[in-house]
Amino acid sequence: MSFPSPFYRWRPHPWHGLELGPEPPHIIHAFIEITPFDLMKYEVDKTTGYLRVDRPQRTSSLPPSLYGFIPRTYCASRVKDLSGVADRGDGDPLDICVLSERPINRSEVILNARVIGGIHMIDHGEADDKIIAVLANDSVWDATRDIADVPTVVVQRLRHYFATYKTMPGEISDVSIERIYDCSHALKVVSAAIQDYDEVYGR
Question: Angle at CA 68, nearest 5°, toward 66 and 71?
């Protein structure tokens, strides 16, 4: 019996075992951890690769898009240097938000995403960038090439969610949104995270 190539006899780790995507840094793979319907915060367990319940969502805000990470990326010194204000990278794979016209209501899926921009977020002094992308070949978003092409209200929802999703009334937030950046800078952030990963984990 012959197997297709590549063939995985066992489930690959979503962070380390999946490919970057067909045309990195422009079109990359996104592994989805959270959907806009989730009231729980899920996160891939770094050891096993399975999805772990991190915590219930603390506020009434729901994620405004699909949310996950780009495989084989890591936020360390190069991502920190692009930030200009962070003390360090957050030591996690690079986060990504993916816009899709048709609802995707399940997580632990892999999709092709086209990078169009990003959110420069600082969390407790760490660079915690959120790349913004669109689902490749999406019927509505396929022509979108830059964050300037996205309706302002969609960007506002993303910005508001990440600025507030950890904060309860009466608390002081350690999260700040420094700026929304365009596709050109987003590609630099993705490339930096790829290089940070290669330095720490190898190709």
Answer: 140
Polymer length in residues for the chain: 203
Residue 129 · residue 94 · CB < 8 Å: yes
Q: What is the mean pLDDT of each run of 10 residues along the chain (203 residues)?
A: 72 95 98 94 93 86 94 98 94 97 95 98 94 97 96 96 80 86 98 97 84
CATH fold for the domain made of 27-201: Inorganic Pyrophosphatase (3.90.80)
CA–CA dist 31, 181 (Å, integer):
22
Q: Take residue 179 and report the two structure tokens written for it.
A: 């700026």
By the 10 Å C-beta count (0-12 exposed, 13-18 middle, 19+ buried), 173 is classed as exposed
Amino acid letter, 179: R
Show the tokens assigned to 54: 């991190």
